[in-house]
Design brief:
The chain contains seven helices and twelve strands. By secondary structure, the protein is α+β, with helices and mostly antiparallel strands.
Length: 297
């Protein structure tokens, strides 16, 4: 599933292609991804221009003249810009483990469930093999966007992400650390990859419980989260299976990961073998030396 760095990378890549351009036509494949009737989406956004692109957690937000068009990518969603001046890929690249297809710029196919074409040419294509992605449309109005996202937690890289607010989020929590980081009500945008990376950066064992943490350890986690997220953005996101940027290209952050996906390999810092356990039904990677379990905790 694309996490904050991947969605932010897509946002930055799409921005120069779509800002200021009016929607000419909308084509819907499988309407399962739409959280409204297909004809309502078509009727409402035709003729509206894209005014800005934003992001909240793992959600990508297109600000139109009168509405917000919001994408959540689910497990396998891909949002790419089809530039008429560029050549389409001849074929899709299939992942050797999952068998899923990674799309570069492509002709719309049976997995392309939404096409938004612009008057100046070009289109954004939403492709989703498993169809867990979602597309929302909400009318502009006072606090409509904040109400839509009212269940999301702190947003990294904003003034709301501060140490006082961060520490407050631990109050009355008894979860294990990894489970807490996966909860979007805590900090928005973190998924399995960046949770493991942040806990390694902070030197915290993912199975530890919230009551076992001291204040200085919470402060280390506070600092680690934006650090690993920024690293992910700097390297264009992490591509293990399906994620591609707005041009259909994979990220390179998977080459920089410290623990995630590296079970059985040596830790880059201490050469201890990276271990993998399961927490909240998610594979969880850590270094037992750099991230020790505190005695009696």
């Amino acid at each position: 599933m694309p996490e904050l760095p991947e969605v932010e990378t897509i946002r930055r890549g799409l921005e120069p292609h779509v800002i200021g351009h009016p929607v000419h036509d909308v084509l819907v494949g499988d309407p399962k991804i739409l959280q409204l009737e297909a004809h309502h989406l078509k009727d409402k956004i035709r003729g509206q221009s894209i005014r800005s692109l934003g992001r909240r957690g793992k959600f990508l937000i297109f600000e139109l003249d009168r509405h917000y068009l919001i994408f959540h990518f689910g497990m396998t969603g891909q949002l790419t810009f089809r530039d008429p001046s560029r050549s389409d890929a001849n074929r899709f690249k299939r992942h050797p483990v999952t068998g899923l297809e990674r799309a570069r710029q492509h002709v719309p196919d049976r997995h392309t469930h939404l096409q938004i074409h612009f008057e100046q040419g070009g289109a954004i294509l939403f492709r989703d093999i498993r169809k867990f992605g979602k597309v929302f449309l909400i009318e502009k109005g006072k606090n409509r966007l904040s109400v839509f996202f009212n269940r999301l937690g702190l947003e990294p890289f904003t003034p709301d992400y501060n140490i006082q607010a961060f520490l407050e989020r631990f109050r009355n929590r008894k979860l294990r650390l990894k489970s807490l980081l996966l909860d979007q009500r805590f900090v928005a945008g973190i998924g399995n990859i960046y949770a493991d990376e942040a806990l390694f950066e902070a030197g915290l064992q993912p199975a530890r419980t919230i009551p076992s943490l001291r204040r200085f350890e919470k402060e280390k986690l506070f600092e680690a989260i934006p650090l690993v997220l920024k690293r992910g953005i700097d390297y264009g996101g992490t591509s293990f299976r399906d994620y591609v940027n707005s041009n259909g290209e994979p990220g390179t952050h998977q080459e920089k990961l410290m623990v995630y996906g590296r079970q059985g390999e040596s830790c880059y810092r201490c050469e201890t073998i990276i271990e993998k356990i399961v927490i909240s039904q998610r594979g969880t990677h850590f270094c037992p030396t750099c991230q020790p379990r505190r005695r009696g905790k």
